[in-house]
Design a protein that fits this description.
Number of domains: 2
Pfam families: Glyco_hydro_16
Order of helices and strands: HEHEEEEEEEEEEEEEEEE
GO molecular function: hydrolase activity, hydrolyzing O-glycosyl compounds
Number of helices: 2
GO biological process, one term: carbohydrate metabolic process
Organism: Mucilaginibacter gossypii
Family: Belongs to the glycosyl hydrolase 16 family.
Radius of gyration: 28 Å
Length: 274
């Protein structure tokens, strides 16, 4: 009888031990699942809208010239002949044009160059559904007086808004600019770039912060250089432009010969999560 009692007690102890282990395992698994769910909810998930290979399928993703035509605020007139793609690299070529009249855009400068500019067929818009956008590209840029390469977005239906992801104005200083800012004007930060003619990476994160405004982070070669506020960007259609303008704000006289701007691995992504 004593032996039977001892066996029953041992059986109960062992059963309770394994039951406790099972309950503890369930608790750990539940905690792990909750943690994984939390991480999944808070991880930005990107949807690619312009792939890094877009220049190899140029007509699918890009248009020649500006959205509004061949002229802008410098002394270069844009032509398709000055736009080329090879090996996934976009090349915009500027060369003296001779006397061909004045630009048809303010400030109506005399045209001194033929050059190239392109804009994306994708038209980003910051919304509640897509509150975060990422723009990135690698560029080789001229930095001598009179050269004005830029990577930027501007309002497709009206101006402002404008965000200049990368802009060189006749020197080795890269300008990152936002219009309009919270005060209704420009925010501008200049960064000296070592050898702008070599490949450098320019990246921007544009994030909705309230019903009307965005935060814009400007990164160069993986380093955050500036965070600016873009007022009244939300809900505005944006044109993405890769631009090789001349003179104007970059000074004059410009180069007497042929110069180039090159781009590769340009991507545009959007996210439904912040």
């Amino acid at each position: 009888m004593k032996n039977l009692t001892f066996v029953l007690i041992a059986f109960i102890v062992i059963t309770s031990f394994f039951a406790c282990r099972k309950d503890n395992a369930a608790t750990v698994n539940s905690a792990a699942n909750t943690s994984a769910s939390h991480l999944a909810t808070n991880t930005v998930s990107w949807v690619n809208v312009v792939p890094s290979t877009s220049f190899s399928s140029y007509s699918t993703y890009w248009n020649d010239l500006y959205p509004w035509g061949s002229d802008h605020n410098g002394s270069a007139r844009m032509r398709s002949q000055n736009i080329s793609v090879s090996g996934g690299v976009l090349t915009l070529t500027s060369a003296p044009s001779g006397s061909v009249g004045n630009s048809n855009k303010d400030p109506y400068l005399p045209i001194h160059y033929y050059s190239g500019t392109v804009y994306a067929k994708t038209v980003p818009v910051v919304t509640d559904s897509w509150p975060k956008w990422h723009f990135k590209g690698e560029f080789q840029c001229e930095s001598q007086t009179g050269t004005w390469p830029a990577f930027w977005v501007t309002g497709a239906d009206s101006w402002p808004p404008e965000s200049d992801f990368m802009e060189f104005k006749g020197s080795a200083t890269c300008w990152t600019n936002t219009y309009k800012n919270a005060s209704g004007g420009w925010s501008s930060v200049g960064t000296t770039i070592s050898s702008p003619g070599n490949w450098h990476t320019y990246s921007v994160y544009m994030t909705k912060t309230n019903a009307t405004d965005v935060s814009i982070e400007y990164w160069i070669d993986g380093v955050l250089k500036s965070t600016q506020t873009g007022a009244n960007f939300v809900g505005k259609n944006l044109n993405i432009i890769i631009d090789y303008q001349m003179e104007g704000s970059s000074g004059s006289p410009g180069p007497t010969g042929t110069t180039y701007m090159r781009a590769r691995n340009v991507i545009v992504e959007k996210s439904a999560t912040l």
